[in-house]
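agent> fetching stored inputs for the carboxymethyldethia coenzyme *A docking request
agent> found them:
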Amino acid sequence: MKPSHIEHIGIAVNSIEEAKVYFEDVLGLECYAIEEVADQKVKTAFFMVGQTKIELLEATSPESPVAKFIEKRGQGIHHLAFAVENTDEALNNAENKGIALIDKQARKGAEGLNIGFLHPKSTLGVLTEFCSK
Ligand code: CMX
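agent> prediction call returned; pasting tokens
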């Protein structure tokens, strides 16, 4: 059940086009994929740093969790995603230990990964995601 590594760090941004400039020109990272995840109402852009990714998140609708987040808190770190062997098992394990789940079961996220979220109220204010292949 122990996560193998931090799969990605999600950062909420107003505009991927504008935010990309910092990651590319200042940090020298390469944006290797841009993908819309309709289910989550976001557009995503990915950069690799070692075995961890930076995931930029731009809302595609005012009802997107990312739009609500930016409205309340402004741009910034939105969530932390752990790579696990099996997302459903990791969610079950967390629930059995009293953690409130956002997703009872894994669903498909960016890059075809199986993803599931834990509620930030149960995880020290940090929206937490499990990801597995
Ligand atoms: N990190 C920490 N706290 C967060 C948060 C975040 N990313 N987003 C919301 N919250 C907090 C709010 O600040 C608020 O706290 P207070 O009650 O103290 O004010 C509380 O959660 C409720 O916030 P809300 O704006 O009323 O939003 P909702 O309850 O409607 O939704 C959440 C919050 C976390 C359940 C929702 O954003 C969610 O389901 N997130 C998971 C899915 C997601 O974020 N998808 C986008 C990324 C997808 C991807 O990576 O592919």
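agent> quick read of the result: The helical segments are 16-26, 65-73, 87-96.
agent> awaiting further instructions
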